[in-house]
Design a protein that fits this description.
Length: 663
């Protein structure tokens, strides 16, 4: 074939493969094939410089060293938005909007924590990328933005087009970058936003290309000129043209729907593959946007709801210990109440003695706290400069704070344990755990109810749950506990007797035996009696059961009180055998599968149950031993790793099709 024609053919192929990989998440060739074709194209373009094309796939891997960044004036100002920090302020903003223009609907989207960017296309071809700058004048960063592989270089729209969005660094890319920085002895980046901004301003485009940036596009400045009536319709159009848009967009009819959506997104923040620092609320009607207009600094038709600060400083007033169902003793910080991420925080787990010593946290310290994953309060570090001499290093107690028994620390663990089976704290938490949803699933028997029944003398041990049917008079004497509540509780208790062995095993609270290990053990041994007589060697021979777990299980079954408990549960009518589920033959049979991303048709647990019903083993991490990675929207590092390792990947739709075929 003529070499010039081959260049055109390779460009066409590589562009198509790029769309499949970066935009559709459905690659049809291996990375090796893609790289081989790319190297062939690079060689041919070097041989034929007259065939240079700025939008060739070879120009997206960097290679230019820039002298600097040219200043560019925006055709339409890139104004920043106003902020609100509470739902009360948001309600007030919506009221002001509707007082001005009447009833309206709103388009709500995540506020990506990245770098605002404007890109333009001429005659369907990518032309220029410009930073926000001061809103009037930005910098031309075209060559660096060109390295963002999800950004289409050509689109099926021949009129001049400007779109705006956010360039960001995915969390997986950020972690990999900081690891490289660390290995090379360089300073690590503080956060993904700083890393993205620094990458975009690299004069060596190869550096920008190596940072694996991405972008989401959310605004068409001239949407009305293209015939759109609503902002949401213009974003849908961008998606049709091949641009990445945020899937978590929603049109809301009123402020209550907006708040509900914000709360929904807030719960998923920790699982997103990128950082967000709030939500953006826009009037959806473009005509109403125009009617509202602008202030000198901000548009009147949109607002950013900012999530609360993730860190705060407060006083650590005390360190107290709690005792869990296995006897594990957890130190907890008692904090001067402080507002953090929308809630008042007054306590945080300090996990164990080693962590306290490592962080040198002391009573009367002022400490920096945040919410790990924006959910769990955590003490980050003390503010040493605020110490006044009243703070002394914490000495971990030697006895249980509840029963006074001596506490122990196992050689292979960081935690301390109370070994007294009669410890009141252990009794309450162990009974509540046995009744919990993931164990025996006895509705109406939560920890507060268990504690109440324990104080009444109705629940001293786990088996007492199944004797509550004989305590009707005492239970009905409780305030707000009527006959219907009693009947529902007793029915839930009776139903729980039919649970499969793994539920009982998990409910017993054997140290090191979580729900997954309980399931593995139940499937292998089938009956409690068989497990009871298992040796350490036999247990270690089971996949997913390690030596520590095996030793713990054998030790647990040597305790006469535990054996008496098992006998009592059997006499009370509990099933102590593995019921299991019928598995169907499929391509997943005896294969290891990993689930990642946001699934639309199943919860993660439901999808796992489906796979297990098809004979698969479901793992939480990707390795060379993984057979399939099934991914939903916004899949992150696990999907990327699967592609690098050559693991088979399936979209949720492909997974559903296979499940449907199996029946």
């Amino acid at each position: 074939m003529d070499e010039k024609k081959r260049i055109e053919q390779l460009r066409s192929q590589l562009n198509r493969f790029g769309v499949e990989y970066y935009e559709q998440d459905a690659p049809t060739v291996s990375d090796e094939t893609y790289d081989t074709l790319m190297q062939e194209l690079i060689a041919l373009e070097e041989k034929h410089p007259e065939m240079y094309d700025a939008l060739s796939p070879t120009q997206r891997v960097g290679g230019k060293v820039l002298d600097g960044f040219t200043k560019v004036k925006h055709a339409k100002k890139m104004l920043s938005m106003g902020d609100v920090f509470s739902f009360e302020e948001l309600r007030a903003w919506c009221k002001n909007v509707e007082d001005s223009i009447g009833p309206c609907v709103y388009s709500v989207e995540q506020k990506i924590d990245g770098l605002a960017m404007s890109v333009t296309y001429h005659n369907g071809r990518f032309y220029q990328a410009v930073t926000r700058g001061d809103g009037t004048i930005g910098e031309d960063v075209t060559e660096n933005v060109k390295t963002i592989r999800s950004l289409p270089m050509e689109i099926d729209f021949k009129e001049d087009l400007e779109i705006r969005g956010e360039v960001y660094m995915p969390i997986s890319s950020f972690e990999a970058l900081n690891q490289r920085q660390k290995e090379e002895g360089k300073n690590e980046f503080a956060n993904p936003r700083n890393a993205a901004a620094g990458s975009i301003r690299q004069l060596d485009t190869r550096v920008a290309a190596s940072r694996n940036l991405d972008a989401l596009w959310y605004y068409v400045p001239d949407a009305m000129g293209f015939g759109f009536e609503n902002h949401s319709d213009s974003v849908a159009w961008l998606k049709e043209l091949g641009f990445h848009v945020n899937p978590y967009n929603r049109v809301c009819k009123n402020v209550d729907e907006i708040i509900s959506f914000i709360e929904e997104v807030n719960t998923m923040r920790d699982s997103l593959p990128y950082g967000i620092d709030g939500m953006v609320i826009k009037v959806d009607s473009l005509a109403q946007e125009e009617e509202l207009g602008y202030t000198v600094k901000t548009p009147k038709w949109c607002i950013a709801y900012k999530f609360k600060a993730e860190e705060a400083i407060t006083l650590l007033k005390d360190i107290v210990l709690t005792v869990g169902r296995t006897g594990k003793i957890t130190p907890n910080a008692v904090l001067e109440p402080v507002q953090l991420a929308g809630t008042v925080v007054s306590a945080a787990s300090l996990h164990n003695e080693d962590l306290i010593l490592e962080k040198d946290v002391r009573v009367n310290d002022y400490v920096i706290v945040h919410k790990a994953g924006d959910i769990i309060p955590e003490v980050i570090q003390p503010v040493v400069e605020k110490r006044d001499g009243t703070q002394v290093p914490y000495v971990f107690p030697t006895v249980c704070p509840v029963c006074g028994s001596k506490i122990y620390r196992f050689e292979d663990e960081a935690a301390h344990y109370c070994m007294n089976l009669d410890c009141e704290a252990r009794v309450v938490t162990s009974i509540a755990h046995f009744a919990s949803r993931d164990a025996m699933n006895i509705d109406g028997l939560g920890e507060k109810r268990v504690e109440q029944f324990h104080k009444m003398g109705l629940l001293e041990t786990v088996e007492d749950i199944y004797r509550l049917k004989d305590k009707q008079e005492e239970i009905l004497a409780l305030e707000k506990f009527g006959m219907k509540s009693y009947q529902n509780l007793i029915q839930a208790i009776e139903v729980s007797k039919r649970n499969s062995l793994e539920k009982v095993l998990f409910g017993l609270g054997i140290r090191q035996v979580g729900s997954k290990a309980a399931s593995v053990l139940a499937k292998h041994f089938k009956t409690m009696d068989a497990l009871k007589h298992a040796s350490i060697e036999e247990l270690v021979g089971i996949e997913d059961i390690g030596l520590i777990t095996a030793e713990t299980i054998v030790t647990w079954f040597k305790d006469e009180r535990n054996l008496q408990l098992i006998d009592a549960l059997s006499e009370l009518g509990l099933n102590l055998s593995y019921i299991g589920v019928e598995t169907k033959e499929s391509i997943f049979t005896d294969k290891t599968c990993v689930l990642t991303g946001s699934l639309q048709h199943y919860t993660r647990k439901e999808a796992q149950a489906v796979l297990e019903g098809l004979g698969a083993k479901v793992s939480g991490s990707v390795s060379k031993k993984t057979d399939f990675v099934i991914y939903g929207e916004e899949a992150g590092s696990k999907l990327e790793k699967a592609k690098k390792l050559g693991v088979n990947t399936l979209t949720e739709e492909q997974f559903l099709a296979i499940v449907s075929e199996v029946g």
